[in-house]
Design goal:
single chain, alpha/beta, DNA polymerase, domain 1, 3 domains, 5-stranded mixed β-sheet, 12 helices, about 45% helix
């Protein structure tokens, strides 16, 4: 096999390694026959200068043809980025994740601080423990949340932690500050967070319960994992607070009420059902 160099999201080039692609396919649950089929279809398209995005789109297309559930696993990271381009849908999506794990949540609340007023992305509360959650959303690959983001989040938390969320919980103060991001987090950001006590939830962090694992363990896949969903349809669903495939699985009537044709509603509901029919993790993570 010829050697090819592909362009990463950081614009660096590196040799294409088929074993890395095989590992990523195995990690998302592709069976050996499907791994072989994807590799055979892609080999004819490989060329120097191919970007990792081009490669991912090709793999996702082939997996969708073979097994939509595995395709949803594979394209999860990209699907979260497609919730944008702005960050508000991501904030609502994060609230859905916290809600599934037993928290009562509020989105976009204005909270007075000692110095200024703040709009808190997500307030999450469970068993008397209240969290101030700052959501940092990126809509392109290769970007990481750095120390400036962590320091900004901590400064906001410090300003409001001794002041109650006015009108919510009778002045109950925040107990923890959280930074939640759909990307990786730099080592400096993590070092700062550990030093001051800021909780961080990112892509692959913490290792035992990062954002990806929390989503996959509970099949909390965003609607952007649906392979047949158009951009216009996505916007309609997001406008009506439909963010999870779980909200559509086996429920075409939800889509029909939003103006989708019966045929389209039935197909999307079936696609959603196939995606969420994944057994929950036998040892689910905690949040």
């Amino acid at each position: 096999m010829r050697t090819f160099r592909i362009q990463k999201a950081t614009h660096w080039h590196e040799p294409f390694r088929e074993d890395k692609l095989v590992h990523s396919l195995q990690r998302v649950g592709a069976n050996p026959e499907h791994v072989t089929a994807v590799l055979q279809r892609l080999r004819g398209r490989l060329r120097s200068g191919l970007t990792t995005d081009d490669l991912a789109l090709g793999v996702s297309s082939e997996l969708s043809r073979l097994d939509q559930r595995v395709a949803a696993h594979y394209r999860l990271r990209r699907a979260i980025m497609e919730l944008g381009p702005e960050g508000y849908p991501f904030e609502r999506y994060v609230a859905k994740i916290f809600s599934h794990y037993g928290y009562a949540t509020l989105v976009g609340q204005h909270v007075p601080g000692r110095c200024i007023s703040h709009e808190v992305d997500v307030i999450a509360e469970r068993a008397g423990r209240r969290l101030m959650v700052e959501c940092k959303y990126h809509n392109r690959r290769g970007v990481q949340s750095d120390a400036k983001v962590a320091m900004y989040t901590w400064a906001r938390f410090e300003d409001i932690r001794d002041r109650g969320a006015a009108g919510h919980g009778g002045g109950h103060a925040f107990d923890e500050g959280w930074l939640v991001t759909n990307t990786k987090v730099t080592s400096d950001a993590l070092n700062f967070a550990r030093c001051v006590g800021l909780k961080v939830l990112g892509w692959g962090y913490p290792a035992e319960a990062g954002l990806q694992r929390l989503i996959e363990a509970a099949a909390l896949y965003p609607i952007t994992c649906l392979p047949r969903l158009s951009g216009t349809q996505r916007r309609v669903l997001l406008q009506h607070e439909v963010l999870l495939c779980r909200q559509l699985a086996g429920q075409p009537e939800v889509l029909r009420k939003l103006g989708f044709s019966p045929g389209t509603a039935a197909q999307l509901a079936l696609d959603a059902q196939q995606i969420v029919q994944l057994a929950d993790d036998p040892a689910p993570p905690t949040l």
